[in-house]
Amino acid sequence: MANTDGVIQVYPQTFGNAVDNLVATSSDSSILQIIGTEKDPIHNSFNVKTRSLSAGQVTIDVAAPGFSSLAMPVTVYPNSASPTNLLIKATPATFMTSQSNVGYVSVETTNPDGIPTPVPVDTTVKLSVSDDNIVNLADSLVIKQGSYYATEKFNLVKPGTATIYASSSSMQLVSTQITYNNANTQSTIQAYVFPQVINSNKDAVGYVIVQLLAGATPTIAKDDIPISVRVVNTTSTAAVNTSGPNPLVQVNEALTIKKGSYWGYVPVEFTAGSSGTFSVLISAKGYTVSTSSASQFTTNAQNALRDVKTPRLNILPIMTTGKQELIGVLQLTDPVNNNPILAKSNLDFRIDSSDPYTVSVPDVQMSAGSQAALVFAQVGSIVSPVTLNVVSDVPQAVTPILSSLPSTTSTVVADSLIPMVLTHTTFPLAIYMTKNGALDSFTSDSSALISPQDSISSGQMTITKVDPIHVAEETLLKDGSQTMTITTASYSSSFTVTGASIKPSSFAFDYPAQIFSNSKNLISVVLLDDKQLPMLTDHDITIHLVSSNPNVMVVPDSVQIPKGSYYVTFDGDSKASGTAEISALSGEIPLSKFDISVTSLSPIITIDAPDRADNNVPVTATITATYNQLPLPGLDVNWKVTGATTKNMDATTNQYGKATISLITNDPSAVNIESDVGGGPYQVVTATKQVTINSPLGPTSSIVSTGATQPTGLTILGLSPLLFVIPGGGAAAFVILKKKNMLDGITEKIDISGKISEIKDRVSDLRQR
Prior knowledge:
This protein is mainly β. It is built from two helices and 72 strands. The strands form 19 sheets. Strands 16, 18, 19, 22, 24 and 26 form a six-stranded mixed sheet that branches. The longest helix is centred in the C-terminal third of the chain and has 17 residues, at 752-768.
């Protein structure tokens, strides 16, 4: 398979020969490289290590001393699991300046079909940002060998939109966008003053009211907003602020829009007799302030009119928060010329509402001598048309502008950091809180549970509030788009993870063309896809192996193709000649099986021993074992002897292929020697040898038809000798005679002394010869 490492095993066809100093070359190193060779004494072979770079066909030439060279064609198949494309994702993709500014960017590799694909070597991916003033990010990340993704943290610097790019060698550039919104974007502070005309016949009070607006609509403050107030007498050079006294006007309180509210106010005190125009100037750090020509007070010390009948409501924009809100200012006004009127006494004014569920105003109290009073109302949470009617001698109908509270949706989110997950592998799952769609923080430590368990291997986890994004390592168990649920004590939401994998279809086996008994043999199992091409597995695959005949071949109970590989090798131990069926079983791949034939070599065994021997004498026998005329050392020798007593014997052949046994004959007729020789790849061969025992010397006779006994064979002086011994000293000669009734009349038939003298003369003559 392209972009993988492999091994070519080179072994001798003739058993017993050894391969040394092997040289291997590739006809096209751009397709297949030779990266090394090493001797494998266990398998009596040489291993040629290869690295394939691309699909194609090459020829591997190998040569070794003492052997004919070999040209071997090799096909490198396309790697369907070779990474060719990049995917990129930012999590989260939207941020607010008031929340966390840390996120993750991930890059993963896929094949041309978009399936996540591990990289064969460490792969560096270059990262860049369209505007590094917005996003601070490392300039690269590394996808480790055997993995298909890597993640990197980034930090947001200032509001804006930036694009993150990722690129790697031979892979197309990809990008993703990040938006960092300013929480205060388009938020302004609007200032109002009521009443705008003040009668300063006596000490009087006016009000500066501010609202936080998003565009023209009130919006809730995320934090307290301190506001500086200055009142400037436009008819004088004197300026008034909150910190110092002034003979004409004083602002004695701080003005703040509280967190969770959208308005604030401060009373402004005018000294009796003051006259002039006073502009109100406000400022707040980080906010734009909107004022108008109406944002000023005009005072005069004319005679005051006192009345109880002419209230007028100055209405403000209202947000339906479901709480009590400041909605305006009620003031007494001359209906003819709009001059201020002072309250004749303590007064209560009623303001009726056409829809009390939307706006309900309690009676407004105004102290004697006052010109104005703040109006508060209980506001509902739903915007509905409403009319407020000020009850007086001169009725007033007011229609306020209502806006709803911006929907605040907080939820827990689970989101894979990578766009596509390789099934049966771990992947990073980000868990975080969002508020109105932007990253938020957990307010306290939380426990989370992800289900269903048959789609994702996950248990209950604890999420701390310290880190706004909790990253958990999870395992996806199924292909396709999987919808799951994450549940905490307060929130629950669903999320989707998409998994994909290349499906394995079958196994292919490879092993030496000739297997000899009693040897270790390297066998490989290759994982194939539905096109019968080798494929990388995205998870560990366990294969159970069964031999139909363990007397012929023994295999391991199981082997495992590890994640990120496409093959595994194991040793098959051959025992004896014959055939065994090897079955390979895996839960996710159909049964595969193949037959292995084992051959035993037949050694040539000879026994070297005398053909004849005398009884009760030492005899030595030597076996010699050879194959292809070469001696076979180390073979087992099993001796079986009858007709003799064993003194010494060799149990194995020596370096010359020989083994010896020493015997003492004890059978009058024959000694039988049998030797079983074999071991290793050589089958047991039996050799036999018979040693005939010489008969003792003695008379022999022939039976004639008359029944008389007639002398036959060798005779001395007409006698039949059984044994004739001539001692080495030559001093005497003995004839042992055995003949029935012969000695009874020997002196009568021969002249003993004369015959002995004759014999001595003959012996002397023989010695001289």
